[in-house]
Amino acid sequence: MVLSTIADQIARSVEGVADTLAAPFSEPVIRLGVTGLSRAGKTVFITSLVANLMDRGRMPQLAAAANGAIRTAYLQPQPDDTVPRFAYEDHLARLTATDPRWPEGTNTISELRLSLRVQSSGLLSGLSGPRTVHIDIVDYPGEWLLDLGLLDQSYADWSAAALKRAAGRPSGDEYLALVAGVDPIAKLDEPDAQALAHSYTAHLRASREAGFSDCSPGRFLLPGDLAGSPVLTFAPLPGNSFPRGSLGRELERRFESYKRNIVRPFFKDHFAKIDRQIVLVDVLGAIHAGPAALDDLREAMARILGAFRPGRNAFLARIFQGRQVEKILFAATKADHLHHSQHPQLTAITEALLRDAKDRADFAGAKTAAMSIAALRTTVEQTVEHKEGPLDVVRGRLLENGKQAAFYPGKLPSDPSHLLAPAREGSENWLDADYSIMNFAPAPLTLRPGDGPPHIRLDKAAQFLLGDRL
User: Fold this and answer.
1) How many CA within 13 A on the CB side of residue 384?
2) CB-based contacts of 346: which residues, under 8 Å, 6+ apart?
3) Which residue, 63, 89, 140, 259, could crosslink 109 as a Cys pair with Cβ 3.0–4.6 Å?
4) What domain range includes position 346?
5) Quick check: 318 pLDDT over 60?
6) Residue 370 to residues 295, 331, 346, Cα–Cα distance (Å)
């Protein structure tokens, strides 16, 4: 272990020196990480961002697009042959079909390289031709980032926190009842280990469906080809010490194996190489799910952003080797589900909700911002007459039946504390309001030449994340 750590440090030091020497003579590369929790819209965001960088008619707030500095954009083979390619063409075809459909969500890591030919606009721009800037977009599930906290925890510490969270959550009581009938110090019986893992996974899935965000370990929800393997066959148990050969000792060993073989390689091989990061958050969905889900989202995002503060963990300090994410954008998605008059409230709630997470990133030196976006606009705005006066609504095509419907989600408070305070206090319901959500299908598109798909503030997000490098 010591030798492998030393070798890893030496290899990274050599890579760092080589990158520094080669940088002035190579084409610049921006590695953009895109993450968020389930149903936050990562796949749609990447698809629309790439489409709108290739056809920039709807990108006026991206300075390099507005002033013509971006001459052309094109896709190239990605540099990492071991990572699946993001299926951009398939996703775009689904979104722009005659009967459009949402693409499948993110369940593993993928990558796409978009290259831009950019004409410099500085004092010496007339003396040089266009240069190529590569944008390597890395798509990965936000659930994987929740596993970061496991690196600092023992099995006993993780178990205590997980058992506490399970109480009162969907299927949590069923899991706790199963644990009550198991003796952790008894001799290992593999069917017992499998039953515990299956029950705990069912609890995590039910919690996610109910709107909770902190549902780790992340690979339990997105197992891929690891489904059924021993590294995913563990669960929390009470106790601090287990004898050799016992059920508790074996689950503890598998927990450590999960950290060593699953969590650490992801951070070492992928996460530590990211330059810019966008974190997509379904704030409206959490508000609809209730105070407990909203507070859980706040805590989950604070833990996720711990990944951008490597000083807190010796392992992360080693793999970063002086690198850090330069910019982090917190984006509340599905802004098209609200009339634009409520967008400032959604942004303010997002900033307040993510205050803990944002402060951690700011402490690490990264530049951060928060905004409300819709990577693909699915609605139009209307004002309808209501018994209490004019009401600002959005109208779109319903996912379940394809019919057009007007929607008003409720009035978001201008003071975010009106939501965050009851969430922190453990209230079961919102006292003076009821917030709704609607599942809209993508709207059929008729795009003019040179235009990408319609959006809300995608160009502003791109300017923050990429503008200074273009």
Assistant:
1) 13
2) 283, 284, 332, 335, 338, 372, 412
3) 140
4) 2-139+277-377+446-469
5) no
6) 18, 6, 10
Interatomic CA distance for residues 360 and 322, integer angstroms: 17
pLDDT in tens, 319-340: 555 456 788 898 999 999 999 9
- Domain check: are 455 and 327 in the same one? yes
Q: Could you tell me the end-to-end alpha-carbon distance of the chain, in angstroms, rounded to an integer?
A: 42
Q: Of 246, 266, 286, at which residue does a domain stop?
A: 266
Same domain, 233 and 363: no
Q: How many distinct structural domains can be found in the chain?
A: 2
Domain match, 106 and 155 both = no
Residues 451 and 304 in one domain: yes
Contacts 24+ apart (CB under 8 A), 190-194: 192/247, 193/233, 193/234, 193/235, 193/247, 193/250, 193/251, 194/233
pTM summary value: 0.87
17/106 same-domain check = yes
pLDDT digits (tens, 9 = 90+) for 109-131: 899 999 999 997 765 555 667 89
Q: From 392, 394, 396, select the one nearest 378 (Cα to Cα).
A: 396
Please say which residue of 211, 243, 266 terminates a domain.
266
282 shares a domain with 227: no
Query: What is the number of H-type helices and E-type strands within the chain?
Result: 18, 10
Query: Which residue type does 128 have?
Result: S
- Do 185 and 240 share a domain, yes or no? yes
Query: Which pLDDT score is estimated for 397?
Result: 93
Residue 321 Ramachandran class (φ > 0 left, ψ -120 to 50 alpha, else beta)? left
